[in-house]
């Protein structure tokens, strides 16, 4: 993923090659999800970050550019169901600018390429970048003859029948238009039409759509054009492909011609010469953005004079004469309709704001996380006021929400002027909304401060905790049982027939036997399951009867034991039996077993206590007993990268790091076979200290441990 990143300047050729391969695969996968299935899995910003990283690595290692590099492709291959149409001229992509600086660079590069001096002004058009689907519509002798999606830029899908149903696209051109005309532009769905459609779908109990763009894409790719006709699709023309003659000599002039032929063109298109004016127009469009009835994700700048466009020409996949200035994460105003409390696996009560649906950055947002009671009150994790003025959040409040990347939307602030006069401060529940047990905020033993999390004390009696436990157990990084996801767990948990019920993890593995023994309960007769899927499910369950010990430990859902800690424990104890025996021996929180546990680098006392507590609970032991009759945890093989200069070494990072985040540093070290510890001990081999390093550095000196700085680290791992 985009996170664990080594700075491009420090990548070795080998790492670069490996990362380019990963990026090609990941970008291709996302292209397919976005274009092929209309179901994006990551945000545009994250996607752009992947592409930029790919480009940066390629710029440094041009020899490593792959044949399947994302920089050589545009979009995704066409879907097989529509006949292919090869574009008479390729449908290209645009380069991106993310800052004012990037825009200046773009403008300067145009001047430089054309050998123009700054006083020999060049005009640019600036117009909104519509977040829809690009379409090429061909007219011959004034009649619409074909329409194609972009596809992979060379070949698109023939969607002529569907495009003919779009009212805003003329089927005929006025007399006098050239014999061959290819109009290019964006098909989109208005936000208001999208919301109305979703309301209708919801009222009919049908699945709602994610955002206008994907809905437009889905509507257009209907094999039955009458479905397309029933959806209100719209169009903006902004470019052209083949033309038997060109009726204007500027971009701006061409837009005027397209308009005169009956195509909708964007009213915010302007022709500007100075960079300052271009950037000012970008800001203006940005301000208008929330009120527009269509999604836009930036502003496109194009060199106005067509003769200059011609001279500038293209790079492999984008024109030198145009660029897209992207908008940062979008914000929107909406209303908090109510606040629900969700109960998680560890009993944490998490408040969620239910919002009046609003599109933010092209996605309909209906929920925002409110984290905890303090957050609602306007208090941060260290007791500080949060949000610009520390306003609390109340039901009925108008709030600003932001969606950054694919994370759950956040409430940025409250619009106090719009607070209803009767809005009362939110009272956080004192009991669990699911099981009714007391909900408490624990006090931190050492600091005496109240924990920010309110927790249900119901434990095993709380259904919410039990269900979430199971969902965690089957999740991707735990047992990862195909066909047994969150939805199925909900079903099996509530199953009326006992032979089909799953309440604890071992029940998963006895399911087949129980339902085979039962005269009545037959999974294959239940809606949503068929003979084949039932067989597949049981096979998938059987496939996990043996599992790596670290996954097994992680799956138990012990508090504070995430994947990393589970790996540390697996590495330290080797086998599950050794681990479990030691945890039971550590019961008294003293003695050898307890000390050994605490001496594992990376395992602190809070974690150690949580594990020991888990093994003290008889109900956990009962579940484990039953589970171990069904499942065998396999000792994980130690992965040692023996060639790395830090393999097998225990490394501590301290102070502030400037070229990488702490997480990146850790991932990098682990990838190279090192163990990363949180504190310095005699077992530490190397300390990487940045500015501001304190006690850990002192300790390293005391124990005479080698200390290097961040540059030293990169130097070391390069060799
Ligand atoms: S011009 C050769 N203008 O953005 C350049 N594209 O990222 C042709 N888009 O494939 C494209 N609004 O789907 C242009 N006003 C606009 C646009 C626009 C949206 C899309 C289009 C293009 C993509 C490139």
Give an overview in words.
This protein has 719 residues and is α+β, with helices and mostly antiparallel strands. The chain folds into six domains: 65 residues, Helix Hairpins; 232 residues, DNA ligase/mRNA capping enzyme (D-amino Acid Aminotransferase, Chain A, domain 1), CATH 3.30.470.30; 127 residues, Nucleic acid-binding proteins (OB fold (Dihydrolipoamide Acetyltransferase, E2P)), CATH 2.40.50; 85 residues, 5' to 3' exonuclease, C-terminal subdomain (DNA polymerase, domain 1, Orthogonal Bundle), CATH 1.10.150; 87 residues, 5' to 3' exonuclease, C-terminal subdomain (DNA polymerase, domain 1, Orthogonal Bundle); 69 residues, BRCT domain (Rossmann fold, 3-Layer(aba) Sandwich). Helix content is 36%, strand content 20%. The protein contains 24 helices and 24 strands. The strands form seven sheets. Strands 2-11-10-3-9 form a five-stranded mixed beta sheet. Strands 14-13-12-15-16 form a five-stranded antiparallel beta sheet. Strands 5-4-7-8 form a four-stranded antiparallel beta sheet. Helix 22 links the parallel strand 21 and strand 22. The longest helix has 24 residues. The chain is globular and about 95 Å long. The relative contact order is 0.07. It binds 2-(butylsulfanyl)adenosine (IVH).
